[in-house]
Description:
Its EC number is 6.3.5.-. By secondary structure, the protein is mainly α. It has helices at 5-14, 24-42, 73-77, and strands at residues 83-84, 87-88.
Amino acid sequence: xxxxxxxxxxxxxxxxxxxxxxxxxxxxxxxxxxxxxxxxxxxxxxxxxxxxxxxxxxxxxxxxxxxxxxxxxxxxxxxxxxxxxxxxxxxxxxx
Length: 95
């Protein structure tokens, strides 16, 4: 499939990409190349091929899902400009 300059202009407009008029022929060529590659991919026989998440058949490492308090209250509060009684202190915004 071949993309003409008018179609390339319309694609650039829809994608909200500013393309100079001089660059439209190159954009049309590039888009035509992408569509040609996609047509080649459509010719591949994938019957009987199961979908994969990865090219290597390995499971992701998982940690046990345990709820904790983080155990870092002192480290976290050390970054605060003002902390009182184990909490962030912020200015009063409602009177």
